[in-house]
Amino acid sequence: MASRPERLLRGGDSPLSASFLELFFDLAFVLALSQLAAHLLHDLSVAGALRTAVLLTGVWWIWVTTTWFADWYDPESPAVRGLLVGAALGSLLAGVAIPQALDGRGLLFAGAYVFVHVGRGAFTVLALRGHPRQSRALRILCWFSVSAVPWLAGGFLPEWRVPLWLLALAVDLTGPRLGWPTPRMGRTRPQELRLAGEHFAERYQQIMIIALGELVLVAGISYAGTDLALAQTAAFLLVFATGVLIGLLYVTPAGQRLGPAIERADPSRLGVTTGYLHLVMVAGLVVTAVGAELSIAHPLRAGDRTAVLVILSGPTLFLAGRILFSAAIHRRLSWPRVAALFVLIGAAAVPRLPLLAVSAVATGVVLVVVVLDHAGIRSYRHIQPR
Question: Which fold has domain 197-383?
Fold first, then answer.
């Protein structure tokens, strides 16, 4: 019979598909992404974008580490189920805090973040007492305990909040890449970071669907609030097309090959790197949602440099993350995508385009990339030996 700590770990016969509570945990991000888009829309300055990026990164790191946790531990274990519910609650509280996280609710945001990471870490360290995997859990807990200091200090000190939280995020994001090195314990070995590729690839697709859902929701609500004129209808259809095309661009072909790539690769490289790159892509979708609201509400407005930059920045961010995502898997760049990135950047310099035209340019560029991607896939399949 397996020991108590052994029963906590995911076994070889555990299902690789996401459990119900993992999907329930994802629902907290519906609120978080909606709040982040509203937060950015409220302040479209460079400083506002930085503040939104800090909050997005914090929320995203809750999702990534919880997904690792659900990959390493048995999703059918009552203890793991309880921790997933706790992570969902912490994520929901962080989402509630987002609109005023840099004002009066900073301690709620930081407290929710620390509650998820330190609480989960403390439990797993105790539950794995005497098991070889306890050392990995202890290293992770040590790193999150260190980062908890600037997180909570930032919650109490509004004037220092952004730099302190940037410091905390630097600690949290570099920890797994370095193997969470800890005095007298060394660092976690690559084999201890092994991830189930099929499970992880599915989880990334699910969170991308959540982010795309936010884009569709914003587009629908914005369009419903207009008088449904021709220009607004065209803007809405362009946003919808962009969402569909971004989804296609994500899943083909690298999104479909992520699982086997994670299984073959050094998990301390690809398993961690994909977490960073999906953050860039999700950020692109959040910015795209903000751009959708601007273009649908004011499709014929011209000369609004800030709105133009926002509308083009969303697809640009997503495409940049997607290019690096493919490079991480295939070890090569897609030059048509790189060229498309420069086209999007160059479009921002065209003077006095109405927002509807800017949205059309963004959609057109993504469409060309998707068409070239699918043409490349067909060519690749055609030359393969039968």
Answer: I/LWEQ domain (1.20.1410)
